[in-house]
Amino acid sequence: MVDNTKAKIIAAAAKVAVKRGVQNLTMDAVAAEAGVSKGGVFYHFGSKHDLLLGMVQALVDVTDREIAAAQEQDQSAGSWLRGFIEACLTNSTQELGSVGRLSVAFLTAAANDTSLLAPMNRRQEAWREAINTSGIDPALAHIIRLAADGLWINDVMGVPVLDPTERTAVIARLVAMTHKNTEPGEKGIEA
Amino acid sequence: MVDNTKAKIIAAAAKVAVKRGVQNLTMDAVAAEAGVSKGGVFYHFGSKHDLLLGMVQALVDVTDREIAAAQEQDQSAGSWLRGFIEACLTNSTQELGSVGRLSVAFLTAAANDTSLLAPMNRRQEAWREAINTSGIDPALAHIIRLAADGLWINDVMGVPVLDPTERTAVIARLVAMTHKNTEPGEKGIEA
DNA sequence: TTGACTATACTGACCGGTCAGTATAGTCAT
DNA sequence: ATGACTATACTGACCGGTCAGTATAGTCAA
């Protein structure tokens, strides 16, 4: 199967980035990790840029899929946000979870060339829409999303922003916040 | 003056990272931007690693300084958080502001080698302490900080998480949130 | 007050390794 | 007989790091 190998290569790249560090994410290393020849990697991805792009796209896809899955058994107000929180924060970076692994690729991409974030940027409009219509006050909804995002990225980078106790408390509070404030625009300092 | 040149090099490095992208942050480019020879750069920073470390340290220092300055004319509850919000979100990335410029260096550092974040990680404990004793409920305080952080980093990476209107609304709401909820631990779903 | 010497702050040509990408010839299942 | 590769060898640019040497200012003994 064609896409099987492509997916295998992307997974291998994510694995290399996590295990050996981003500066060692070479095409040779990816090929070795994937059990494929270097030529094989270039057969599927015309350039390293393409591979990175594929990794970011995979992260976006997987995140969307996790949110959708979470929403399937929870359609009440704020469900999109709860799905987002779960997708970002549930699996730690070290674990083989889809999001965790690929997150590192995201960082790599951003650092090396912000144009690599195109697949993610394309998705932002849809996510903004989902947040604005999530069923809770938009400004608060964005704040919840941004906080989850902030914690996620600090996790990925290994910055100890929170200790374990604080972390669980914060996540619980974030989830709690998705349950109240159902009426938009009635309490904010402005729109 | 000795440190003048070091500071000049750090500023030049930040400028290069912003203008030409992180992948072009070479020692040659830094030297050229600083109006110094490559050897001169290596005279002050033993390695590129050292330079990056210096940049992260500069970011931390400048952030701390901005928070302290903001707190000078505002000692009421939540002032640390308001200072943090201002430091992170007030000056946009493109502007020559201290934080904005150096932020990119932070990303670079994180992506290339998380050990480069040591100066920032060292500061986290103090910041956590400041947040926990900020005068507002800790869980909420952390969420405010994380949201500011999340918005900041998305700014730096150029991810369009919010449109301009949403952005100002979110920042206003964030600031508003630092003013209420003065009693810790009375409304959370848990500690 | 001059000549020998020292410290500091550089300069800029150069070297060597790394790595994306190419080339080419061949394998093998369908 | 085509599509999906493997295997190996190679190119060439780029970049971190080195190093011998230069510039300038200052110290100090005779």
Element order of chain A: H for helix, E for strand: HHHHHHHHH
* Overall SS class of chain A: mainly alpha
Mean pLDDT of chain A: 83
Sketch the major β-sheet of chain A.
Answer: none
Which stretches of chain A are poorly predicted, pLDDT < 50 over at least 5 residues?
A: 184-191
Greatest interface:
A-B, 53 and 53 residues
Approximate helicity band of chain A: over 70%
Oligomer: homodimer
Strand content of chain A: under 5%
Give the overall form of chain A.
elongated
State the separation between the terminal residues of chain A, measured CA to CA.
51 Å
Q: Enumerate how many helices of chain A there are, as a single number.
A: 9
Q: Which radius of gyration of chain A do the C-alpha atoms yield?
A: 18 Å
* Number of spatially distinct domains of chain A: 2
Topology:
The structure is a homodimer of 191-residue chains.
Chain A: H1 2-20, H2 27-34, H3 38-44, H4 48-72, H5 79-89, H6 98-112, H7 118-132, H8 138-157, H9 164-177
Helix pairs in contact in A: 1-2, 1-4, 1-6, 2-3, 4-5, 4-6, 4-7, 5-8
Chain B binds a DNA duplex (30 and 30 nucleotides) through residues 2, 5, 26-28, 36-40, 42-44, 46-48.
